[in-house]
Design goal:
Number of strands: 20
Strand content: 25-35%
Shape: globular
Order of helices and strands: HHEEEEEEEEEEEEHEHEEEHEHEEEH
CATH class of the largest domain: Alpha Beta
Structural class: alpha/beta
Distance between the termini: 41 Å
CATH topology of the largest domain: Aminopeptidase
Radius of gyration: 19 Å
CATH superfamily of the largest domain: Zn peptidases
């Protein structure tokens, strides 16, 4: 993928955005990550857990980052209906394409009866589609579909490369069942004896949290994290000197919620850059927010010890 005016430190993000992986189709992005990690540092231990990946750097990590590798998308129904995968925000002027086929574009029809593919002649029921829009750079702002959570994966990879001891769980299925987070939580807790996590994901631009003001440390969403661990993360973040925001939400969720509903006593806190127009074909993030997100995850991953 070639993106005009893309900052040189975001070439990896362009590569991540070029791989399709709606929930249930994470195999391609898993393969890319495994190849990248092997070329980056052969000492990083990579364990496949289904389509999820657990990557370990160092011999005694005490923090695990969770970054989901799946995105939203669509399944074509029996009569060219579009069945959402996760909760994509579809608009009348959006174009969709088949997985891995950027030249096969399809328009959409949205009515009170639902959403359909306009040009369905070559599509069979069960086909999977994704947003076709390509990334656009305007100054500090990147506009593209699936920055949630390609940008979070990029930031987690930066932290993994920079930290001497860190684990990153690249999880499948966050947009639907959260199965990947629960499976990885078991591996992280039982095999690596880690009981604290940071969720590297993308959050919302709201009245109180803004694109361009740094990554957000979330005090809560639909799920309430453990207060003692949250306080440690907030206090450590405040000592970092890295620009960030504090977020309070009553709705939404992440791999943190899936960990919370699992069987393992892993404390977690969400850390992520905000974006405008979530789950749409034109999500928007700030490059500087992403840089600071990577810096903050790196600092927290190094400072939060047992």
């Amino acid at each position: 993928m070639t993106v005009s005016n893309l900052p040189t430190d975001f070439g990896l993000l362009a590569s991540l955005l070029a791989i399709d992986s709606p929930s249930g189709d994470e195999g391609r992005i898993s393969n890319l990550l495994i190849s990248f990690l092997a070329a980056c540092d052969p000492a990083i231990k990579v364990t496949r857990v289904g389509h999820s990946i657990v990557a370990q750097r160092g011999s005694h990590p005490s923090v695990a980052l969770f970054a989901h590798i799946d995105t939203t998308g669509f399944t074509v129904g029996y009569e060219s209906d579009l069945i959402p995968i996760g909760s994509p925000d579809l608009a009348d002027n959006d174009k969709l394409r088949s997985l891995g086929k950027p030249s096969e574009l399809f328009g959409v029809e949205i009515s009170a009866d639902g959403c359909k593919v306009k040009d369905n002649a070559i599509l069979t029921p069960g086909s999977r589609l994704v947003f076709a829009a390509q990334p656009v750079v305007e100054g500090d702002i990147l506009t593209a579909p699936y920055l949630d959570n390609r940008a979070g994966v990029w930031a987690a990879l930066q932290a993994l490369i920079r930290c001497e001891n860190l684990v990153v769980a690249f999880t499948a299925g966050e947009e639907l069942s959260g199965h990947g987070a629960r499976v990885c939580a078991r591996h992280v807790f039982e095999e690596l004896h880690i009981a604290q996590a940071l969720i590297a994901d993308i959050t919302w631009d709201t009245k109180y949290v803004h694109v361009g003001s740094g990554p957000a440390v979330s005090l809560r969403d639909a799920t309430v994290p453990n207060r003692s661990y949250l306080d440690r993360v907030v206090e450590t973040a405040s000592k970092s000197g890295i620009k960030h925001q504090l977020e309070i939400e009553s709705d939404g969720g992440s791999d943190g919620g899936h960990i919370e509903r699992g069987a393992y006593p892993i404390d977690w806190t969400f850390v992520g850059a905000p974006e405008k127009f979530p789950h749409s074909s034109h999500e928007q993030v700030s490059f500087e927010d992403l840089r600071q997100m990577a810096n903050l995850l790196t600092f927290l991953g190094s400072e939060l010890t047992h």
